[in-house]
Structure to design on (228 residues):
């Protein structure tokens, strides 16, 4: 079992005001209009408790028979500004990852800048779909080579 | 970097399937597992793509409901 840590950022402009964007995260009805599986999926469990400490759950069966389970807890909510959640992602009974997600919403003219920062621990096990590493270990290799050649390693980026 | 640190680094990389190594006498030769390095990006890319798609759907939902805008 190996663990990978990685961060990615999604930076988008949404053509709506921050309050409308935030409203799309706030209720199950609004969220289900965009945060959804393809129609061929069967929703098995869908819980939504939008408050600090509240749990959101989305368990679905895909046409292939695969069951995915998104199990999130809200850690911080600031109206029209940000939300922070931690989610576990399962395929079947296997936990694939634990991720910290920060979503920031800022006014940009009459639109919204949405910044999604996600840092996760990804576990590889018997699942061939899950691979261990990303460029963080490329850094590892680069620095090893640099050290062997007597050069300074570079900072992680 | 000390030899033992190098050895430790190599062990981690080999356990991760990122390098292959073989030893002949006192010489250990390591090579990058090109396939593993290519796969490295995949899992993170899949996660990121999933969320990008959800935000595409958010864009569509905002467009559909733009008549409901409140300030």
């Amino acid at each position: 079992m190996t663990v990978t840590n990685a961060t990615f950022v999604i930076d988008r402009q949404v053509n709506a005001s921050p309050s409308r964007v935030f409203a799309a995260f706030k209720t199950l009805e609004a969220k289900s209009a965009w945060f959804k599986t393809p129609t061929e999926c069967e929703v098995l469990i869908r819980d939504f408790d939008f408050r600090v400490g509240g749990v959101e759950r989305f368990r679905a069966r895909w046409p292939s028979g695969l069951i995915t389970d998104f199990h999130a807890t809200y850690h911080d909510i600031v109206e029209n500004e940000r939300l922070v959640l931690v989610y576990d992602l399962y395929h079947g009974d296997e936990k694939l990852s634990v991720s910290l997600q920060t979503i920031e919403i800022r006014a940009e003219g009459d639109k919204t800048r949405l910044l999604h920062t996600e840092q996760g621990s990804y576990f590889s096990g018997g699942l061939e779909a899950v691979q261990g590493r990303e460029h963080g270990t490329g850094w590892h290799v680069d620095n090893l080579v640099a050290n062997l050649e007597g050069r300074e390693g570079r900072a992680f980026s | 970097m000390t030899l033992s640190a190098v050895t430790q680094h190599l062990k981690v990389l080999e356990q991760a399937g990122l390098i292959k190594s073989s030893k002949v006498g006192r010489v250990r030769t390591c090579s990058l597992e090109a396939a593993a390095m290519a796969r490295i990006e995949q899992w993170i890319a899949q996660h990121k793509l999933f969320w990008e798609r959800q935000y595409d759907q958010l864009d569509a939902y905002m467009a559909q409901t733009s008549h409901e805008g409140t300030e």
Observations:
- The interface with chain B takes residues 2, 4, 6, 8, 10, 12, 14-17, 19-21, 24, 30, 33-36, 97, 99, 114, 116, 118, 120, 122, 129-135, 137-138, 140-141, 144, 147-148 of chain A (CB under 8 Å).
